[in-house]
Amino acid sequence: MRLAAYPAFTATAFQARLAYRNQVWASVFGELVATFAYIAVWTAAFAGAGSAAGITLPEMITYVLIAGPLLHWRTDRMINEVGESVRTGDVTVFLLKPLQYPGFLAASHFGQYAFDQLVVTLPVAIIVGLIVGLLPPASLFHGLMFLPYAVLSWLMLFCLACLAGLLAFWLMTVFALEWFLKGIMALASGAIVPLWFMPSALANVLGYLPFAWVSYYPSAVYLGKLGVAESWFHFGIGFAWLLVLGSFLGWLWARARHRLVVQGG
């Protein structure tokens, strides 16, 4: 199948989400509550202090929105979808089609991600901006550099989630995998607590693991916490990690296909 066919999966996934209007309102409300809860926590943490670790409260509020709903999308949908396909055997359909299953997942879930950003995250950002205020990018360079970092973030999280989902071919369940990835991402991605607030030894380790490129580094670039040279340097490391994860994902899918054929006799 030609690459031009994959955007059709993206458009279909986007349109499918339009059918669940009540779920959209619930998602907006839930994201709004969660965002303001984090803002309340950090507001209390900064009470009486102008800054902490060189970070001001307005910067932290902006970080909460970027590192959370903007970049840290729901991976449980994809992991559960892969697990259900393996459990029911529906995944065998993809062995009969001229397409790569990971490619289909990427196209489909990018459509869902685009829908969430336009219909859920954007209204939340507008409300947060009107009530407590949001900061613009630190500079033109940091604003422009944030864009490739955001793409890198999405691809990095997709690879991690897809790798976790494909393990269902061996484990036959994804429940533990879903919670395991959530736990790892909560600690290591910086979505909840930025690396600059962690002990230096722990931050130094997490800062070179791929999880940090999902939330922490894109947000740090947007806020200007990385200089020009540092921004390019860390982007290069993140891109190298993406190549490693992408290669491993291709290898794991090839192994999963052979395993599926053997199970099917």
- In percent terms, what proportion of residues is strand? under 5%
Helical fraction equals over 70%
Number of beta strands: 2
Q: Please, how many domains? A: 1
Integer-rounded radius of gyration? 19 Å
Order of helices and strands: HHEEHHHHHHHHH
In the sheet with the most strands, the strands line up as: 1-2
Secondary structure class reads mainly alpha
| Tertiary shape | globular
| Mean pLDDT over the full residue set | 87
Low-confidence stretches: 261-265
The major sheet is characterized as: 2 strands, antiparallel
Number of helices: 11
Spatial gap, N to C terminus: 26 Å
Structure description:
The protein has 265 residues and is an all-alpha fold. The protein has one domain. Helices cover 72% and strands 2% of the residues. The chain has a two-stranded antiparallel ribbon. A hairpin with a 2-residue loop joins strand 1 and strand 2. Helix 2 (21-45) runs antiparallel to helix 3, helix 6 (140-166) packs antiparallel against helix 10 and helix 6 runs parallel beside helix 11. The longest helix is centred in the last third of the chain and has 36 residues, at 228-263.
